[in-house]
Amino acid sequence: MTFCFRFLLCALFTCCVFIPELFAKPRAFEVTRKIKKSHCVYEDSRSKWLPARKKKSGLYSVMKRPKKKAKNFSKKLKNFKKRNRVCKRQPQPNALSLDKFPGNERLLAEVSSADAVSGTPPSYPEISEESALSLYWREVEGENVITALQEGTPSAAQCDEFFIGANDGESGGLIACEANIDSVRALVKPLEAGISACYLRNLATEENLEGGGISLVRGSFPAGHVANLYIPPTGSESRIVKMEITGDEFAQNIFVRTYSEEENSAAERSYRVDLWFCDGDQTSGAPGGIDQIQVGTDNSFSASSVGLRDGQLSISVDAQLAASSEDENAFEFDPSEAVDADIIFVDTGDDGEEVQTRSAYRISVEDGVIDLAKHDLNVGSGERNLSRFILEYLGGMSDLAMTQGAGAFRFVEGEVLTGTGSAAFEYRDSAYLVTETSEFLSSVQEEDFSEDFFTTDPAISVDTTGYDCGATADVVVSVDMSAETMQAIDAECNSFLPEGTRFCESDAIQSAEEGLESCP
Length: 520
Hints:
The chain is α+β, with helices and mostly antiparallel strands. It has helices spanning about 1-20, 75-90, 130-135, 145-150, 155-160, 175-195, 195-205, 205-210, 260-265, 440-445, 450-455, 485-495, 505-515, and strands at about 35, 40-45, 50-55, 60, 140, 145, 215-220, 240-245, 250-260, 270-280, 290-295, 300-305, 310-325, 330-335, 340-350, 355-365, 370-380, 385-395, 400-415, 415-430, 430-435, 475-480. It has a 16-stranded mixed β-sheet that branches. The protein has a four-stranded antiparallel β-sheet with strand order 1-2-3-4. The protein is globular and about 80 Å long.
């Protein structure tokens, strides 16, 4: 009897607990995270992202694993597994924070090999003013092109190779040299813009708090932990953190606004943080710079940075994120997707007001190839230097080396076309020489320089509304740049900037260019 009674109790418990669940109506989700072709929903009870399909009602339901009896079972199973893998790699929603996203120093995917190169080209930091002379200019008639032009008695053949040779095996010249420099300059700008975010990612740690690098002045750390400073607040209100920077040559205040979960959901994004930079003694008015970082529900990444003092600089970066292979709750830049950046620099004179030059770069990096457009405008003379390069590279940002490339260029003064041309070059054993078999040449030759990027004056427009140096902060912290823990952060956040020379602008090359006047 006892056994029967216990059996009946177990049976009743099973019916009451599990059977209703079997017949329960599947949960409908309003919000989905779309990753390429996959829709993912977050199941709170299981703490997992699961593949989903859209219903006629516009809501989403969890996608079920196909049954073996289903038509086209193998194909459906393969599709399910693929979408399931994509969704499983998504970080938990409440894990999103500034320190979960990669820094701009990782925008350039590492490339370890290239087919179209003979020998190993030197990286940008390895090139000196002296080595550049034989790296981009060969010997013609027994003498280096640059040396011959400097001496003032060059031959016609030597003169013809200063900018770039016309035939296979001739000097890559100044065009190849500037292609290398321009690509590095364009890529370095997003790195410089990412330094502030690098500091913020690293300073909000318990170690830095204990070491005196950061201390609480007013308010409280979210949920009692300094590491939560950049986690989206629940509810509808953003969190504003004011960081008072001390112990540095230039004291300043940095405001950090982390948008709330409701604000992000309404804007169909996963995360957004804004930074604005003010002088240390500034208590109101517009900031001197603004940074924005935003991540979409589809893992799209966009970052922008605008500097409004000492010349004007505007940088925007667009990329795609993928779940990190090292941390399941963090992201890395997806190496299979293109990274796009737009950069505008307005240079002012010594008085800080008169505009001297305006420069714009448009750059796209994908599969080890850099596609670079450049527009330089000399405001005084009206001269425009327009160029488009496609370059193949090796290495990463700290050891970037160009293997081959092609460029088209046009020089315009006012409405008058003063020069145009196109050429291709590649590294051969010890120097960059002209090649007639470049896969990139036809692409740059199709550039007619008629689109807005090349015809519109580079200019910066920024709306500073909502970015006030007198903003009321929810949390105020002090950051002591002289603290030992901050020194380590300082070293880390500046270590990825490549050090090198402006080897295309050396005295020897400038002297050689002046020597063109004596060409026959």
